[in-house]
Amino acid sequence: MSGGELAILAENLTFMYDEGTVALRDVTFTAGHGEFIALLASNGSGKTTLLRNLSGLLEPQEGSITIDGENITDLLPARLYTKTGVVFQNPDDQLFAPTVHEDVAFGPRNMGLAEEVVESRVVLALESVNALELRHKAIQHLSFGEKKRVALAGVLAMRPSILILDEPTAGLDPAGESGMMRLLSRLNREEACTVILATHSVDMLPLFADRIYVLKKGEVLKSGDATDIFCDHEMIDRAGLRLPYISALLHEMKQRDGLPINGLPLTLGEARKRMLELIPEEILLKKLKDSVC
Ligand SMILES: Nc1ncnc2c1ncn2[C@@H]1O[C@H](COP(=O)(O)OP(=O)(O)OP(=O)(O)O)[C@@H](O)[C@H]1O
Ligand SMILES: [Mg+2]
Description:
With 293 residues, the chain is of the alpha/beta class. It has a single domain (3-242), classed as Rossmann fold, CATH 3.40.50. Helix content is 41%, strand content 21%. It is built from twelve helices and ten strands. It has helices spanning 47-54, 77-83, 100-110, 115-128, 144-156, 174-190, 205-208, 226-230, 233-238, 245-257, 268-278, 281-292, and strands at residues 6-16, 22-32, 36-40, 62-67, 70-71, 84-87, 162-166, 194-199, 211-216, 219-224. Strands 6-7-8-3-9-10 form a six-stranded mixed beta sheet, with helices on both faces. It is globular. It starts with 5 loop residues before the first strand and ends with a helix. The site of adenosine-5'-triphosphate (ATP) has 13 residues, from α1.
């Protein structure tokens, strides 16, 4: 694929912080239009540094980045920030206005939109993250999870075509975590938004990610779909990661107990199907009859 056909093409990036830490080494990364991509890596592997390079907040010492085929260094900040929306790891680094409404309105107002358009964007963005009832609240009174959702609303109000999110589910409760992933998946499928996120939510990824990049010490160890990634046990160990819990259980039962399961199920749904295949048909039919009677 050429750079023009991709939402993002980053080639051979090397990034070193001022005091000498090399946080990215010869990283090549692509995101096709409408793809949902996850960066999966242990702490300190370079996820945040890569996302900051892709969003123009840091400049690599070596390598190049194109967004929709245009070199990132040629894009004026105003254009770059309407193409890419960035949600930081810590919402306190992002939120700065006194109230939720003012914060979410800041981006569209800065784009020079008419006040009624700004207003409708604020309402829609807050509705989509399920936070409209927070609109008159002071930012400093929000809980951590509420701040995460409001930070995302502020970015959505700018309607970027590429969403870059640094650990959007970190620190959220289980309902908040799956709610956030479902929202991102909806934006990806229904609004054709390209989604690139760093995450430790291993159990959720097989449900949502088209492609996963695994990093270690600033280098890409592997990229591929969830099956390519999680079936490579040696690489998962080397990266200091783990399998989704359901896959780990079934892998263990295959290896240690000889359970004759096909492939490696990555989700609860797949695991259930594979387990049902192991139950003799007559037992299933009897269960079905019993439940009807
Ligand atoms: N501002 C900075 N100055 C110097 N070194 C930094 C700076 N920011 C990050 N680093 C170093 O760069 C490396 C990569 O850090 P980065 O924050 O990109 O990792 P990460 O994968 O996002 O980690 P985490 O999962 O903990 O968020 C680490 O070794 C870190 O210590
Ligand atoms: Mg990080």
